[in-house]
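Bumping with the actual sequence this time:
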Amino acid sequence: MSALIAPVHDLPSLLAGSGYAVLPGLLTPAEVESVCHRFAAYADRAGAQALPDGMALRASPIPGVPGATVQYEPGFDPAGKTATERELGVRKFFQFAQGDGFFWNLARDPRLRGPVEAVIGTGAQLLQSLALVKPPEIGIPKAWHQDTPYFPIDPVTETVGLWIALDRATLENGCMQVVPGSHRQGVRPHVQGETGWCLDAEQSARAQAAAIAVPVEPGSALLFDANLLHFTDANRSPARRRALQFHYSSARTRASGALRLESLDQDNAPWGRS
C-alpha cells in the first residue's frame, strides 16, 4: 500500500509522474456528515418503485434534482423498503451537483478547486458528479478501467477525478486501487462489462499485478488523472464505503453529444436548483 501526499504546489509533478495524489482532510467531519445526510435525502426522494426483471442497474430519476439519477446494486429491489433500507441498496447517485446548489457550491469550493486547477489550469469546468456508495456486503466491484473512455471530450489529457471518502476506505470494503504511472500510456482499449467500460481479462490481470491500494480516512481525497488505471473491489465487509466524486476538465476541453461541461465560475447550480 502507498499514498502520495503532497502540498498543492507539488501536485502538477505528482500527477504528471504517478498520476495520483492523496489530499488528507479535504472535508471536515461535519461536512462529511452533511454530504451523507444529503444522499440519505436523495434515497428518500427516489421512492420505492419496483425494478423490472433484468434491469437492476438501470438509472432512475431523483425527484427535485434536475438531471440526477440513482442506481441500485444488482439484485436489490427497493419496493417495500424504507428510505434507510433503500439507501443501503444504492450503488450510485449520478449527476446531482449541476442541479443541486449544495453540491455545486462544494464542487467549486476553493479547497477542491485549488488542487484541481493546480493540475489542469484555471477556469476548470465540472464534467461529472457522482457518489459511489458500495453498500455493506453487497457492493459489487468496479472493474479495472480508465475514466476517459466514458467521456466524449477533446483533449482527453486534461481531465481529473477527485474521489472523496465519506467513510474509512479500506481493502476490505473496496478502497481505490491504482496502477501508478499508467496514465502516461494513453487511452487503452476497453470492453463493455457488467458496470460499464472496463479492461479485458488480460489487461485487468496485468493491472492487478501492478496495483497499489490507496486506503483513506473520511474527508480525505484521491486526486487522479482520468487516464489512470483504477479499480475498486467488492465490499464484503459490514462497513459502509461511500465516496463522493467530481470530474473536472480544463477550460479548453470541449464535449460532444449529450455531455455538458459547466464552468465553475457560475454562482448558481447551472441546471436550475439553488
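The C-alpha cells above came from a reply further down the thread. The longest strand covers residues 125-132.
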